Amino acid sequence: MQLNNAFTFYAQTMPGLEQITWREIQRATPNARVVGFRQYRQQNGLVIFENRDDPSPLLRLRTPEDVFYLADHAGKIAGGRAALQWLSQRMAKARYFDVGLQFHRRVRQRRHRGRTRFRVVARIQGKGHSYRRADIKRAVEKGVLNRYNQKWSSAEDAADLEIWATLLEREFLCGIRLSDRTMRHRSYKTVHKPASLRPSVAAAMVLLSEPEQDDLFVDPMCGAGTILAERALVGPYRGIVGGDLIGSAVATGRANLGLLPGDIEVRQWNAESLPLDDLSVDKVVVNLPFGKRLGSHRNNRSLYRQVFAEISRVLRSGGRLVALTGERRLVSQVLAAEASLVLGETWNLSLLGTPASIYVVDKQGIG
User: Across the beta sheet with 66-74, what order do the strands follow?
Assistant: First the structure.
């Protein structure tokens, strides 16, 4: 990859969701062009792309956790400590760094008064380096301070902007963070629940359901209501209904969804016996229990069979199921027993180091 112009950005998401995020980027900015994909350990996926349009829509994306301007890139740097001096010199002269600051001011709609305070976040992946993250951090700080003749100051708290220095084996990426914490931590999540789904993953699942304005959308195991909230914020719908077996989860879901637009219904129910009419639902999106923090593999064997049977019953012909789970073998077995549910795409991802998959399943048959 070569950084050939001043219009290169990257979105950071959960590893495995890169292609889904790219779909969303294309819808938000149709003229964008993908440059490449990267992964940082099992923590983040990176979607690198060019975009010559207004970058403001990038901050309204829902599947990434952060969006950056790519201020500098080097395809291969040395592993020895001499690379640190080289890195400082490079940051002091990075060709597009000031362009990134202009984008930062534009999308954040703020100007830095007085001395600019910046924070460097450094990350290293791979072996063979004779330096640590702290060394990378100091080298980048030194280069930025020299660039602005010591008129800037480094800070860990209350920084005006963040500079992320990521070393992937020998490849170096320097990003100016355009997004803030609200992209990752949604404002609607006022009440939290253990094992709650990350909003960016919920948003990816909703995107895969192909939302339509006449959808009756259901999450039969809604927990804190994250999937329901992400669907409500995408656009118009006919109805959104969720439920959970546990009363405290229902209360949490209602609290989180209370200020969102539209009529969102959260009920207490058993997902193995849904109080919904046959062939009445357009989309089902669900985060199934992994059998680790919640439930067990032994219990999941019977639970999954009954829940998938209920989803098949209530889902109309042509409707869609999007399901997330770590029980890959079990899902294969259950789908084999449900002839009307046809597996389309499978997306493998890592959730904080835990392997999982998103299954996109369409309902066939008469109805």
Answer: 33-40, 44-50, 8-13, 66-74, 171-177, 161-168, 117-125, 153-154
Q: State how far the Cα of 262 lies from the Cα of 82, in Å rounded to an integer.
A: 59
State both tokens at 312: 């098949």
**What does residue 251 show for φ and ψ, rounded to 5 degrees?**
-65, -40
SS3 content of the chain, % helix, strand, coil (to 5): 30, 30, 40
DSSP-assigned states of every residue in 79-141: SSTHHHHHHHHHHHH-TTHHHHHHHHHHHHT----SSPEEEEEEEEESS--SS-HHHHHHHHH
The two three-digit tokens of residue 280, written as one number: 């009445």
Close Cβ partners of 104 (under 8 Å, ≥ 6 residues apart): 69, 161, 176, 178
**pLDDT over 90 percentage in the chain:** 79
Distance from C-alpha of 69 to C-alpha of 237, rounded to nearest angstrom: 34
pLDDT at 1: 60
101-115: burial string, b at 16+ Cβ within 10 Å, e else: bebbeebbeeeeeee
Is the pTM here over 0.70, yes or no?
yes
DSSP assignment letter at 156: S
User: How many angstroms separate the CA atoms of 258 and 116, rounded?
Assistant: 39
Distance CA 6, CA 175 (A): 13
Burial class (CB in 10 A: 0-12, 13-18, 19+), 45: buried
**How confident is the model over 218-264, as pLDDT tens digits?**
999 999 999 999 999 999 999 999 999 999 999 999 999 988 988 89
Query: What's the CA gap between 306 and 321, in Å, rounded?
Result: 15
Domains annotated on the chain, with CATH:
8-183 (3.30.2130.30), 199-363 (3.40.50.150)
Give CA–CA dist 228/266, Å, rounded. 9
Other CB atoms within 10 Å distance of the CB of residue 207: 21
Q: Give the pLDDT of residue 292.
A: 67
Which 8-state DSSP code applies to residue 259?
Answer: T
pLDDT of residue 150 exceeding 80, the answer is no
Q: What is the mean pLDDT of residues 284-288?
A: 97
Tens of pLDDT, residue by residue over 38-88, are 999 888 999 999 999 999 999 999 999 999 999 999 988 887 888 999 999
